[in-house]
Write a structure and sequence with these properties.
heterodimer, A: mainly beta, 6-stranded mixed beta sheet, 4-stranded antiparallel beta sheet, 12 strands, B: mainly beta, 53% strand
């Protein structure tokens, strides 16, 4: 069965600093990978996804994630975060969308 | 973009009663919908896959008789929490993929259930 691991439950980072949110998955078959974001008091929104093709995928707000098959990882990165990036980030995998436990990103002024 | 709605957005009920939650895809057809449960400060847990015209597929540990799912049409799936108890209080979220099941999932806004 597919499983998704987000090792960091919370990540504090200063504004304008880079950030990496880690995600590892377990699967022996075709993999679909997603990052979803949940802003305070809002529903889930898709941030970016990997289905096939280029292993580096980007979102419109500066986030990117790289599918690494050998390390079974799909880490999310942003070179410079803003206060508005404060949210809960969920990594998910497979077509049934199995979620990781989420990582709360705290942006420090 | 695609929109998924849920009704009601919140409900409070007495212990022992049943509660029905609706999930609708407003501008696309969804042969498959997913139901999740989110506990406070925790991740979403997939409960079941709702299949139009056939029985739902439940994840391990989810009681079929407790959480009844009916996918009556290509735009509507319902989750009924039967004989609700306080431990059923949670945030229930549905999602539906546009196109194939590996495609982008659109999530409903969620329904907060409080059982007294």
């Amino acid at each position: 069965a597919q499983s998704v691991t987000q090792l960091d439950s919370q990540v504090p980072v200063f504004e304008e600093a880079p950030v990496e949110l880690r995600c590892n998955y377990s699967s022996s078959v075709s993999v679909y990978l997603f990052w979803y974001v949940q802003y305070p008091n809002q529903g889930l929104q898709l941030l970016l996804k990997y289905l096939s093709g280029s292993t580096l995928v980007e979102s419109i707000n500066g986030f990117e994630a790289e599918f690494n098959k050998s390390q079974t990882s799909f880490h999310l990165r942003k070179p410079s975060v803003h206060i508005s990036d404060t949210a809960e980030y969920f990594c998910a995998a497979d077509d049934k969308i199995i979620f990781g436990k989420g990582t709360r990103l705290h942006i420090l002024p | 973009g695609a929109v998924v709605s849920q009704h009601p957005s919140w409900v409070i009920c007495k212990s022992g009663t049943s509660v029905k939650i609706e999930c609708r895809s407003l501008d696309f057809q969804a042969t498959t919908m997913f139901w999740y449960r989110q506990f406070p400060k925790q991740s979403l847990m997939l409960m079941a896959t709702s299949n139009e015209g056939s029985k739902a597929t439940y994840e391990q540990g989810v009681e079929k008789d407790k959480f009844l799912i009916n996918h009556a049409s290509l735009t509507l799936s319902t989750l009924t929490v039967t004989s609700a108890h306080p431990e059923d209080s949670s945030f229930y979220i549905c999602s539906a993929p546009v196109g194939g099941t590996a495609d982008t999932q659109y999530f409903g806004p969620g329904t907060r259930l409080t059982v007294l």
